[in-house]
Design goal:
- About 40% of the residues lie in helices and about 20% in strands.
- The protein has helices at about 40-55, 95-100, 110-120, 180-185, 185-195, 205-215, 220-245, 255-260, 260-270, 290-305, and strands at about 1-10, 15-20, 25-30, 60-70, 70-75, 80, 105-110, 130-135, 140-145, 150, 245-250, 280-285.
- The strands form three sheets. Strands 3-2-1-4-7 form a five-stranded mixed sheet. It has a five-stranded mixed sheet with strand order 10-9-8-11-12.
- α6 (about 205-215) crosses α7.
- About 45% of the residues are buried.
- It binds zinc ion.
């Protein structure tokens, strides 16, 4: 029997697994990204993990799907100037793995991979217009329109994190000020807490810790959570005003804590979505659990090569 080899490349870890045609992860392995070194060594590491997981799951590899931290060129299969892994920039993971395994290989930005996974096997299977948003150390998004992954000019991936929320906001790496990511990512939440004079502070604050402090009644953490709810709601309201999708699926490390405030986030959206039918837009949390990234990477392959309509499989 065969399975799809799934490769998820993040700034901190590389995950590799075998995923069957129903979106189930049969075997998986992980390694720290930084330990992989230069691309030639990383290529050997990833190939070795693919072989090992194929052996563990007793499947042969029919194809390989990749979701990667960006920027990547999904058409040529090359890494762009990767922020997290600059030493891999310019390498062609698609050609290299196709040479190694002699199977079709497909690559997408990891947020687009996440969107494909949710649209096919996750929280968006019954929706044709879906926006997937992941909120963690940064913000990423993927857009599915009429069951296909939306691509911009030259195959480009839209950068929803860099919608400007407040022109007087913090400077962003993109050159603008006050982008959504600079207000609503996990590190943005921690930065805001750390600069408050009344907060004595503690090292290594994370969004998760701030949510825990808020649950315990820490007044400043409560304000930080209210602020996060507000900025999440504003950014999502903008997406609804621009696209009016059938559903928005939320994922990422911040949403693990922020998920319990979904109704409050929705209330912020209601204030800013009067001219579009927000009541027809469902706000959902990811349903794919800890293997979501691998499932999405496998779906990248199906979306590119298999004539299976997204949403056809439930
Ligand atoms: Zn920006």
């Amino acid at each position: 029997m065969t399975a799809i080899g799934a490769v998820d490349i993040g700034g901190t870890k590389i995950a590799v697994g075998m995923v069957d045609d129903a979106g189930r992860v049969l075997a998986k392995m992980e390694a720290p990204s930084q330990s992989a070194g230069a691309w030639m060594e990383a290529r050997q590491l990833i190939a070795g993990m693919l072989r090992e997981t194929a052996q563990k799951s007793n499947r042969s590899i029919a194809g390989i799907g990749i979701g990667s931290t960006g920027p990547v060129d999904p058409i040529s299969g090359y890494f762009g100037n990767l922020d997290a892994l600059p030493q891999w920039s310019g390498a062609s993971i698609v050609d290299d793995l196709a040479d190694e395994f002699h199977v079709p290989v497909a690559l997408e930005n990891d947020a687009d991979a996440g969107a494909l996974g949710e649209a096919s096997w996750g929280a968006g299977t019954d929706k044709t217009r879906l926006i997937y948003v992941t909120i963690g150390t940064g913000i990423g998004g993927g857009i599915i329109l009429d069951n296909r992954l939306y691509r911009g000019a030259g195959g480009a991936h839209p950068e929803i994190a860099h919608q400007v929320i407040d022109v007087n906001g913090p400077a962003c790496s993109c050159g603008l000020n006050g982008c959504w990511e600079s207000f609503a990512s996990g590190p943005a939440m921690a930065r805001w807490m750390e600069i408050q004079p009344e907060y004595a502070g503690e090292p290594g604050l994370t969004a998760r810790r701030i949510y825990e402090l808020a649950q315990a009644g820490d007044p400043l953490a409560v304000r930080a959570v209210e602020r996060e709810t507000f900025y999440l709601g504003i950014g999502l309201a903008n997406l609804v005003n621009l696209f009016t999708p059938d559903a928005i699926v939320l994922s990422g490390s911040v949403m693990k804590s922020a998920g319990r405030y979904l109704r409050d986030i929705y209330r912020v959206m209601q204030r800013g979505c009067r001219f579009v039918p927000l009541d027809k837009v469902e706000l959902r949390l990811t349903s794919l659990g800890e293997n979501a990234d691998l499932i999405g990477a496998a779906r990248v392959w199906h979306h590119r090569f298999a004539a299976i309509e997204l949403g056809a499989q439930k």
